[in-house]
């Protein structure tokens, strides 16, 4: 994701000049800010399968491939850019991916306001906008309040998986999650040690020779401290 990942009503999406594709089965309706409620994923999917949430899905390569490869799990993606959101919704609908939902909204807002306690098994945050200018650092997604919300929405033993090509942001990611008492680092890899992923951003950055940083943190069991 290179944009922070608002919502639109479910409607068919017309791809170019082709036939319209009904994307309503894969779209999550944005919850209005005037409503104090959160998604019940068991109702959204009609089952209680594990839920994985990706923030900033971009063109949806990781999300769609994961949903196809793992029908035993439910996948939710959040994206702010309307062009990418519509693109992913169309691709998912064409493939009949009943275990996938996309939502157009701000990623931080969704995590804070719209996801329930212990509702997610895995949280994916890949290549968030690094906001490299000093005056923009406060806009970065991964900060201490985000880690607190991640701890709230993850199930005990669940994990948050992060990746970035920006060294300063990588340092910040580790500092934030290492400092949070509810997380322990279970994986760390930089450069050649980092296993290849499939997001469009990672493919692009590897071709450009950028150094990839990847981390995984496990959510400690509640009451274990």
How would you describe what is shown here?
The protein is an alpha/beta fold and 225 residues long. It is 29% helix and 24% strand. A seven-stranded mixed β-sheet has the order 5-4-3-6-7-9-8, with helices on both faces. The protein has a two-stranded antiparallel ribbon with strand order 1-2. A hairpin with a 5-residue loop joins β1 (13-14) and β2. The longest helix has 13 residues, at 82-94. The chain is globular, with a radius of gyration of 17 Å. Mean pLDDT is 91; it is low at 3-15.
Attribute tags:
single chain; 225 residues; alpha/beta; Rossmann fold; seven-stranded mixed beta sheet; two-stranded antiparallel sheet; 7 helices; 29% helix; disordered N terminus
Number of strands: 9
Structural class: alpha/beta
Which sequence of strands runs across the widest sheet?
5-4-3-6-7-9-8
In this structure, how is the largest beta sheet organized? 7 strands, mixed
Computed CA radius of gyration, to the nearest angstrom: 17 Å
What's the level 1 CATH class? Answer: Alpha Beta
- Percent helix, as a range, is 25-40%
The share of residues in extended strands comes to 15-25%
């Amino acid at each position: 994701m290179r944009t922070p990942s608002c919502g639109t009503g479910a409607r068919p999406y017309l791809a170019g000049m082709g036939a319209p594709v009904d994307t309503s089965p894969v779209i999550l309706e944005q919850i209005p800010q005037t409503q104090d409620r959160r998604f019940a994923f068991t109702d959204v999917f009609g089952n209680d399968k594990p839920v994985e949430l990706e923030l900033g899905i971009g063109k949806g390569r990781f999300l769609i491939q994961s949903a196809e490869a793992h029908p035993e799990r439910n996948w939710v993606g959040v994206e702010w850019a309307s062009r990418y959101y519509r693109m992913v919704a169309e691709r998912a609908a064409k493939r009949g991916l009943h275990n996938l939902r996309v939502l157009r909204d701000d990623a931080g807002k969704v995590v804070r306001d719209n996801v329930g306690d212990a509702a997610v098994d895995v949280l994916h945050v890949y290549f968030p906008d690094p906001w490299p200018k000093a005056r923009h650092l406060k806009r970065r997604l991964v900060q201490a309040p985000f880690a607190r919300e991640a701890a709230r929405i993850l199930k005990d033993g669940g994990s948050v998986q992060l990746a970035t090509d920006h060294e300063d942001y990588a340092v910040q990611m580790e500092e934030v999650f290492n400092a949070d008492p509810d997380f322990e680092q279970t994986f760390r890899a930089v450069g050649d040690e980092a296993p290849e992923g499939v997001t469009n951003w990672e493919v692009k950055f590897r071709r450009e020779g950028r150094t990839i940083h990847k981390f995984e943190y496990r959510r400690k069991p509640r009451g274990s401290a």
